[in-house]
Design a protein that fits this description.
Order of helices and strands: H
Oligomer: single chain
Helix content: over 70%
Structural class: mainly alpha
Distance between the termini: 136 Å
Number of helices: 1
Strand content: under 5%
Length: about 110
């Protein structure tokens, strides 16, 4: 009976030791899960920040394209206006060049 009790106590001690080891492993796994959860949250935040930066860059690029297009239209209009003014001046200069004593406008 004493031997059986001793064997039972030994088995209980071994089981307690295993349970303590298992508890320590569970605690370590919980720490690792918490660390991975933190890393995941950080990765999500970084992804969200990158998405916001990409959206802002896309908006900026769209605005830049629109501004370039408006500048091209303004340049085309300015060229057309300059061409028209040249034609008007050429026409006036041509009319006045045949009349003696008249100086074409803008040449005085």
């Amino acid at each position: 009976l004493v031997q059986a009790e001793t064997d039972a106590l030994t088995e209980v001690a071994v089981a307690i030791s295993r349970a303590e080891a298992a508890e320590a492993e569970v605690a370590q796994l919980r720490r690792e899960v918490a660390d991975l959860t933190t890393r995941l949250a950080d990765a999500d935040a970084a992804r969200d920040q990158q998405a916001a930066l990409a959206a802002a860059a896309t908006r900026d690029a769209t605005e830049a394209r629109e501004a370039a297009h408006k500048a091209e239209l303004s340049a085309t209009e300015a060229q057309a206006t300059a061409r028209t003014l040249r034609e008007i001046l050429d026409s006036r200069n041509h009319k006045h060049s045949g009349q003696p004593g008249l100086t074409p406008p803008g040449l005085t």
